[in-house]
Amino acid sequence: MTTLPLDPQRIRALFPAFEEPSLQGQAFFENAGGSYTAQAVLDRLDRYYRQTKVQPYGVYPASIEAGEAMNLAYERIAQAFNVSADWIHFGPSSSANSYVLGNAFGGWLKPGDAIVVTNQDHEANSGAWRRLAERGIEVREWGVDRQTGRLALAALDAVLDEKVRLVAMPHCSNVVGEINPVAEVAERVHGLGAVLAMDGVSYAPHGLPDLAALGADIYLFSAYKTYGPHQGVMAVRPELAAQLPNQGHFFNDGKPRYRLTPAGPDHAQIAACAGIADYLEQVAEIAGSGKTDPFRRAHAAMRAQEVALSRPLLAYLAERNDMKLIGPADPDLRTPTIALHHAEPGAAVARRLAEHGIMAAGGNFYAWRLMEALGIDPQHGVLRLSFVHYTSPEEIESLIKALDRVL
Question: pTM, whole model, 2 decimals?
Fold first, then answer.
């Protein structure tokens, strides 16, 4: 393996999980389902629960401090995204955030308007939008290539016209793993005066993107998959958020943070999300100095680390003819969320890998429509091996050896 841009020992020292006795000897390859939590996040969560576990935004010192800790999270996540803090909304999960957004758009769109969804998505970013058909909205599907799982721009062009008001798609699929051409899609969508809603749940763990450069009007991700607590975070262009119907209490209509998150997420976990930005700055420091801001530097280093880690695994898989890799074999084109279709059900293979110290998973991962499009029985599913920048070269070697034993 080539020299890595991030020292694995220094990175792993920032995660208590790697010192946890009960996890020793276990290599974690289910990061797409949820990552380990960074110490910077745990520090903020602990501090909030110990010092400011009161109702925030009040008039007494502990309450004021609690509100300030929450405000900091909005500011820090926005900074990582290269947007202003009024873009950021916290909810209980990305699935809940998608559901609320779908309902809000149901009141904003008019019968006869059209939206475009894909069959590459996790159902949370598809089902909520597809339900708008019940309100007279035309729902069009941008379908994947049935051999590769790819979302081709030509297929998008075939379903776009002046009736389209929204396009909802993943930054990358939680099964295919290919990084979709978001900037090119944004140019097409905005050319029609439409909105681009991006499910970033499967991409964000590999580096929070520069939203100003990406061009999405909505970007959703899960904090618990990006080294933080179990929260859903969504960035919504403020001008768009102001136009959408209020989804909260009527008397909070004038409060932007309350209008699209009616469920009342955990205050302590919101405050702890500032630790995600703290952690990304630590990654940037380990990556070394550079002209770019720390969040872009962290993003670039995390991606470069993952590409280097992916190469030996993808090369090994290319030599096997007893399973099919879903998505591209080129690590530069994908995230390290690697799904394999095998004659044996994915969950059964994962169970046998567990006997060799490999923590992986099998199933359809709520990508039911994608499985059907690829000709895979959703009940049979795939084996998914997902890792991030804190995975070590030794763990990749252990995975390859385990695969040799169980397949």
Answer: 0.96
Instruction: Answer yes or no: do 315 and 357 share one domain.
Output: yes
Interior/surface letters 12-22, b for 16+ CB within 10 angstroms, e for the rest: bebbebbeeee
The closest alpha carbon to 32, from 397, 401, 367, belongs to 367
Q: Which CATH number is 23's domain given?
A: 3.90.1150.10
Query: Is residue 173 located within the same domain as residue 249?
Result: yes
CA 309 from chain centre, in angstroms, equals 20
Residue 1 has a pLDDT of 54
Give me 162's structure tokens: 């002046």
Question: Under a CB-based contact definition with an 8 Å cutoff, are residues 300 and 292 in contact?
Answer: yes
Kindly list the strands in the beta sheet with 337-342, ordered across the sheet, starting from the edge strand earlier in the chain: 323-325, 337-342, 382-386, 361-363
Mean pLDDT estimate for the chain: 96
CA gap 67, 257 in Å, rounded: 13
Pick from 15-19, 73-77, 257-261, 370-374: least confident: 257-261
* Backbone angle region of 209, left / alpha / beta, with phi > 0 → left and psi within -120 to 50 → alpha: beta
Question: Structurally, how many domains does the chain consist of?
Answer: 2
* Model confidence pLDDT, tens digit, residues 228-286: 999 999 999 999 999 999 999 999 999 999 999 998 789 999 999 999 999 999 999 99
Question: Which residues have C-beta within 8 Å of that of residue 127, sequence separation ≥ 6?
Answer: none
Statement to judge: residues 78 and 191 lie in one domain: yes
Work out the pLDDT band at 48, boundaries 50, 70, 90.
very high
Query: For residue 104, what are its two tokens?
Result: 């809000």
Rounded to 5 degrees, φ, ψ at 56 are -80, 170
Residues 91/345, Cβ–Cβ less than 8 Å: no
Domain match, 142 and 17 both: no
Pull the structure tokens for residue 396. Answer: 């990749």
Cα–Cα nearest to 69, from 83, 86, 93, 53? 53
d(CA 217, CA 21): 43
Q: Are 216 and 240 in contact (CB under 8 A)?
A: no
Question: Scanning the structure block, which residue is given the tokens 């969508």?
Answer: 189
| 184 and 63 part of one domain | yes
Per-residue pLDDT, 268? 98
